[in-house]
Amino acid sequence: MTASFADCANAIRALSMDAVEAANSGHPGMPMGMADVATVLFQRYLKFDPVDPAWPDRDRFVLSAGHGSMLLYSLLHLTGYARPTLEDIKNFRQIGSPCAGHPENFELAGVECTTGPLGQGLAMAVGMAIAERHLNATFGDELVDHRTWVIAGDGCLMEGINHEAIGIAGHLKLNRLVVLWDDNNITIDGPVSLSSVEDIPARYRATGWHVVECDGHDEADIVRALDEAVASDKPVLVKCRTIIGKGAPNKQGSSKVHGSPLGKDEVAAARVALGWNHPAFEIPQDIRDAWLAAGARGAAPHAAWKERLAAHPDRLGWERRGDVQPNLLQPHVQSLLANTQKVATRKASELALEAVNAILDETIGGSADLTGSNNTLTKGLQRLDADNYGGRYINYGIREFGMAAAMNGMALHGGVIPYGGTFLVFADYARAAIRLSALQHARVVYVMTHDSIGLGEDGPTHQPVEHLMSLRVIPNLDVWRPCDAVETAEAWEAALAKADGPSLIALSRQNLPQLRTEAAENRSARGAYALLEAEAPRKVVLLATGSEVEIAVAVREALEAQGIGADVVSVPCFERFDAQDVAYRRDILPQDALKVSIEAGTTFGWERYTGNDGLRFGVDGFGASGPYLKLYEHFGLTAGAIVPQILAKLNGEQA
Known about the structure:
- Substrate binds at residues 27, 258, 346, 373, 450, 458, 462, 509.
- Homodimer.
- InterPro entries: THDP-binding, Transketo_C/PFOR_II, Transketolase-like_C_2, Transketolase-like_Pyr-bd, Transketolase_bac-like, Transketolase_CS, Transketolase_fam, Transketolase_N.
- With 655 residues, the chain is an alpha/beta fold.
- The chain is built from 27 helices and 20 strands.
- The strands form 5 sheets. It has a 6-stranded parallel beta sheet with strand order 10-9-11-12-14-13, sandwiched between helices.
- Helix 15 packs antiparallel against helix 21 and helix 22 (548-561) crosses helix 27 (639-650).
């Protein structure tokens, strides 16, 4: 007996409602509503090979509506991926099961990106589509010829990041990107009309997209719509009219099936309504065979691709992309030592990038409309736009969140290493995507300039105070704040070498002296190191980052003149320092010395290094508008203001 289209779609519905019911937690409505669309996509259009989920020329499928994760887990299981197994699905949302509540890219092969925070999946898909077009321009159709498909819900299209992401995609004319909109007219609170009267197709058309509509439960109509989508010369939104929870006779079409299990009685009623006369988690063999046949479709095109790769004139170039050699920037560092530079670290970053971009073909830079301030465009880089996908620099416009999410998608696609710039204070706009960079182990480099009150007259709205510390608490994110041109180069070298996570480099607007005069190794890579050691008997350890290391050096000079020995410890990266062995950390932070921190930001968090008995100098309120040197005086961040307080502390006086 041959399984019908309805049988195949109902297998998704059954697995989804059974898994959610067993977990007593989850979202059955979206998988049941989009089962028909997903069946057409995976059985007829999507190019993939479950035997090799990482095949570079596979289509990317992104479940942006990640709450409907059982849709994806069902598809992966049915099409023949090694995991999830049926046992994994039975343990949906349980500790130890790769079938997490929302899809996690590090849990299962076949999950292209971590989704759940609505809108970010679609925005990451924009980055994947950018990477595909760029690599196609570089290596040709022989190696790169695939699409990016997205299933998104009403929430994904409401989130602000959607506006940013589709603007980028429309401007770049990413015609290999297709978004399948689960247009079921339901959110958690109830009908979409409770909160929106927006004409979504009109918005997409206005940003340069082609829009198609179909009945999301009619196989032939879905095929017609997808045929039209793949023929378009623009990115495409397919408006799939669906019934949320389709098959659950008493709850479908309502918010009752959005975020709660159907309940035992409704599951039983759904089995009757769907004609699914099989026990929980049981897939009849004919239906399983039909799905496995769909999964096997990719074997032949995959084999043909391998043959083309073997014969490709730039096969070695393809295979080495992403491999960053150690000591990448040592020649550049040596040139800095030979010709010292007193420059803003944002300029020092540009100098480092000149060397990086000349060596690594895979870097793709950009800025959220602050190119001249972030110094992210280097000589020789052409702009990546709709007329030149081979370019390596993207003008993202004033879209910090969209830029960050797109860079995540580019990194996860593979073959490129994205970096992008904005002001550090605007990390707040991008923070949710920065967090997902870290969670997904995506190699993204954030270039964030104007890193303190040192930016001066723009005032407190633009002066980051709490940002460095708030970013340092994100797991797996390396936050760098270099003090000079040498440390900036070392930060870039370490960031590019980190293949399993993101880095953020915070850079000054104001010029800073070059304090490093030797570089036998990348000392910044250890996170903290003694820039200067005490000459008199050591009583103080001065810890500082970025532009305040210069102040620490001046404080040390004043203390040493009074016979008080002081180390200056530069701390360019907390995360790297915390990863060092105990002996190294104890050597840098001896117990018998007063620890003093100096950073033009919140003092909160520095007590981990200074202890409660140490001193912490910073800015614990908002900034102010004025020339930056006057601001440092105003906030007491000068050697003249700091030295007396250290002396008072050493003398047992109230500091």
